[in-house]
Amino acid sequence: MPTKAQAFRALHRGRESGDPLVLPGPWDAMSARAFADAGFPALATPSAGVAASLGHEDGATPAEEMFAAVARVARSVDVPVSADVEDGYGLPPKELVARILETGAVGCNLEDTDGATKVLKDPRRHADWLAEVCAEAGEELFVNARVDTFLRGVSDPAEAALRIRLYVEAGAGCVYPISVPSAQLPLLREATDAPINVFASVASASDPSIAELGRLGATRITFGPGLQRRTQAAVADIARELYEKGPGRAKL
Description:
Order of helices and strands: HEHEHHEHEHEHEHEHEH
Strand content: 5-15%
Shape: globular
Helix content: 40-55%
Strand order of the largest sheet: 2-3-4-5-6
Distance between the termini: 44 Å
Radius of gyration: 18 Å
Structural class: alpha/beta
């Protein structure tokens, strides 16, 4: 029987165009169980969604709290879990991999923005660091290397393509050009044979569908904190109705 890590890695392989792997993003144990019970084969925690659930701003969650939150998610479900651990919190590769595996996660997102300065890291130095992480991870941890060029205002897809090639050569199993315009996704698809993770919005009906993103080159789809924010908005609506109408009249 394959391990969770093997099963998670296999989910990225042999996918048909238009049928990307969809990974909803739980922010706590309850949401994780809801997504798993709905039938999703794997989950991917969003750092911003976890931060909001813990009362922190995005990017301000202490490492200890993030690892603890991921552990609660991973132990609450039987499906594989990938963890967004931002830029690795300054931990050495060996310690970082060990800490992630201790949570029960079998995958991770690692971004190329410096968490302290919010500036893009040098791509070659970051690739060297990723190579150390991937060497420590072996087959136990599936590394998704986030490419933040578009997020940081670098609109030239050539810069994203350069980073993608470097990170795949370093051993990343998947790359994540966050905020890539959908029209430029085919250009990045041409730059690599590796799986590509694409962010999908849950707020705009005008954005490409999941199937269309798959046809444009996406291998897997994640939602960042979008699902958590949508749930938070629904809770806010219930709270307002309860406050304005009272518990006897509110339709909960």
